[in-house]
């Protein structure tokens, strides 16, 4: 049975439509999705009220269908970008803007869907999530997110927890290097225990990295190297957005190493656009305490840190450290 909450999640595919229209129309229309997220959503989230409703339904069929639409959506956007690059209907700065639009799509629709899918217990969902991560050139998130982040969130052991006073730029470098390095080490140790080469094809990161490089090479050979370059820029953009999301989800919130994960270890946002563009990822406090809870059942929690704006609204402030600190620091205690 459809509910208003279920239908609202279809908003997540507005970026898909904007990308396809922009790449089809050509020219600077290719930037439509970037403008939509940064300008339209960024402003709307400062102006519109919160949506704290916790109405949910047990039947997961419609939410699951909406979630799985991310696979054809991702393939359509990526295929459309590569086709536009190959046919030269997008060139120069227009192709760069198109790649950025596809990257924003990857960072919202594709990686957010992958995040939900890899938290599922069935192999089909996990495989679909890994496939989406592969298309975004991300070899580390599956390993580090599940085995490190959810276990050590809020501690200095977790690379994806942003520290108090840390700029986004410093966090981006530390988080990427730390997550990739540790994920490789985790997979290498697992391979050793199974009697395999630590950095052979049994290592998930090695396998995913090689597959992405092979796909890029095939793309460059068949469609031209500008198409491969556009895909690479798109993938880079989507992963920077992933790290931006990590940055704001736990910025400055700490817990002792021996303390249980609590609702207050994550920031929450109930702005309508953040909720339904990102499959309620912004209800992050509930997600971390109840990692297996499906997205359409996540709840708004009382007495937790609340972001001053939505995910799109805070994108520009996050790039300007003095403004970011002024917005966030009054809402959190200074760590001792």
Short structural description:
The protein is mostly helical.
Write up what this structure looks like.
The protein is an all-alpha fold and 336 residues long. The chain has one domain (4-181, 225-331). Helices cover 61% and strands 0% of the residues. The chain contains 15 helices and no strands. It has helices spanning 4-8, 14-25, 32-47, 61-68, 70-86, 92-118, 123-135, 141-152, 168-193, 204-223, 225-250, 272-277, 284-289, 315-318, 321-328. α5 runs antiparallel to α6 and α10 packs antiparallel against α11. The chain is globular.
Can you give keywords for this protein?
globular, 336 residues, mainly alpha
End-to-end distance, in Å?
Answer: 50 Å
* Average residue pLDDT: 94
The total count of strands amounts to 0
Beta-strand share of residues? under 5%
**Largest sheet descriptor:** none
Quaternary organization: single chain
Uncertain residue segments: none
Note the run of SSEs as H and E: HHHHHHHHHHHHHHH
Helix content: 55-70%
Given the structure, what is the number of helices?
15
Round the Cα radius of gyration to an integer and report it: 19 Å
Overall domain count = 1
